[in-house]
Structure formats: structure tokens, C-alpha cells
Amino acid sequence: MRAEVLEYLNCRPGKIYVDGTLGGAGHARDILAQSAPDGLLIGIDQDAAAIAHARVALADQAERVRLFHINFARLPEVMGQLGLAGADGILLDLGISLHHLQGSGRGFSFLSDEPLDMRMDIRTAQTAADLVNGLKEDDLRRIFQEYGEERWAGRIARRICQARRIQPIRTSGELARLVGAATPGGGRHRIHPATRVFMALRIAVNGELDRLAEVLDRVPELLTPGGRVCVLSFHSLEDRIVKQRFRAMEKRVGRDPWQPDAAGRPERVLRILTRKVVRPGPDEIGANPMARSTRLRAAERI
Length: 302
Prior knowledge:
CATH class of the largest domain: Alpha Beta
Number of domains: 2
CATH superfamily of the largest domain: Vaccinia Virus protein VP39
Distance between the termini: 25 Å
Strand order of the largest sheet: 3-2-1-4-5-7-6
Radius of gyration: 20 Å
Order of helices and strands: HEHEHEHEHHHHHHHEHEHE
Strand content: 5-15%
Number of helices: 13
CATH topology of the largest domain: Rossmann fold
Structural class: alpha/beta
Helix content: 40-55%
CATH architecture of the largest domain: 3-Layer(aba) Sandwich
């Protein structure tokens, strides 16, 4: 949704923009082009490979780029380190990249047989294999049910626990086969039977939903007046968090945005720009089938 992202971010020369999820640096390059000749891009990613790629991909604009190997939840630290009072736009693209699926070797995909890792940041201690082999059955069921909205969460968790008593589950291929065997339907599914389980484990390993909520709660104070935030999410749990946070902060409209609330905290105010979630059109889905689940929401600081 390249055009929509650029429209809602309202990129202009001389302004400051944050790409909180650099990935393949496609959005970053677009932002730099729209904010030329003197806009500043702050690029953040928790994956060291994404930072290394961005250094090469954005080398021709290096004087206008600041890169940080860190999770976007720590954006306030980054802004403080740079001595910036706020950004004019913040982009969060929550999707998993093709690099993670096809080139990371960390077991994000159920279509390959790789070590069951799933860490976006390899400095994180706990891997997906640690969860699969160490959690109690009820805890696995809860992860699959809450984060993956998996109908057969109980059956899958039970099958995993039975299998790991014989030997640990170490690869993405092993896990995918176990999930397929535990899922009714004989392989006749609209999506791969392991899709939701792999998503749930990735979310749990990387603490994705907690970190998303954390950064959204800080976004208004990180934006300059009139600054915008744009979030691309890819499943209902992420989108729900974005929608609820935006709605909660818009309720303050019409009042002094920095008037303390009852607890003495400043009230943060956003104006929602996307009254309904924005979805990709048929042409974009045809050109890029991975875009079909994309949901875009945007808001502006009052």
C-alpha cells in the first residue's frame, strides 16, 4: 500500500520521519524521495540483518538517514538520543518480511525445515523451540488460541506435548507436520493448517502485541503538532489494538491536549484520519497476493 502510506504520512521536504520497521527499506526509500532534499529519516529495526541491508540500500542518502538496531517500543530513547522533540510522521509496518520467511533461516515459515527460532532480534533469549518444548500444554493452548485464534488449539497443544516426550521438536518442518496431523480436514484447508500456530508462536517469542501497545501509547507525545502516525497491520489482534488506542486518544478532541487528567498525567490527543480501515485494492492484491490481509489506519496529532 505504497501510495496510501505516502498519502497519510503527508511527507514533505525538511521534515522528520520515523520508519519503525525498516524491513527491506522499501518504505524508507519512498519517504526519503518524498521528503527530499532535506528531510530526515530515522530508521529502526530489531533485526540486525534489516539494518545491514538498509545501510547498503540507502547509502546514496546516508546523510539524511539515522539507523538504530532496536525495537520500535524504544523510540522515545532514540528521539532523546538525537535531541529531537518530535517527529512529523511515524510509520509502523507490522508485517513479516520476505527475508524472514525465505532467507533468515530462523524457522518463520512452515514451508521450510529450519531451526525453530522465530526471534526477530537474535539477542532475545527465548526461541520458539524453547516455548514448544518447555511450556505446559495449557500454556501452549492459550498461546495458539489467543494469539493465533486457532480453532484446534487444544488438539495441537496435546499432539505437541505427546511428540516432545519422545524427542524435542527442533525444526519448523517438524512442527508443521505435527500441526497438520492434529488438524481435522485431511489437509483440505483454505490456508495451511500451521499458519495460525506459527503466527502465534512468533507473536509470543517477540512480545509483538505488548510492544505495539507500548509504542502506540507514546506516539502522541512523539509527534509534533500535525504530525501523523500510520500503521499497517496484518491480523485482527494487531488491528484491534491500533483501533482501540486511536479511538481512546481521540476522545480528548476539543479539550486542551496537554491538560492533566485526574491522575496528573498529560492528556494525549489524536484525530483519526481513517474512519474505516483501509484495505488494498484488487490490482494491488493481484500484483502482490501477500498484501491481501493488510489493514491501514492513520491518525494525526492535534
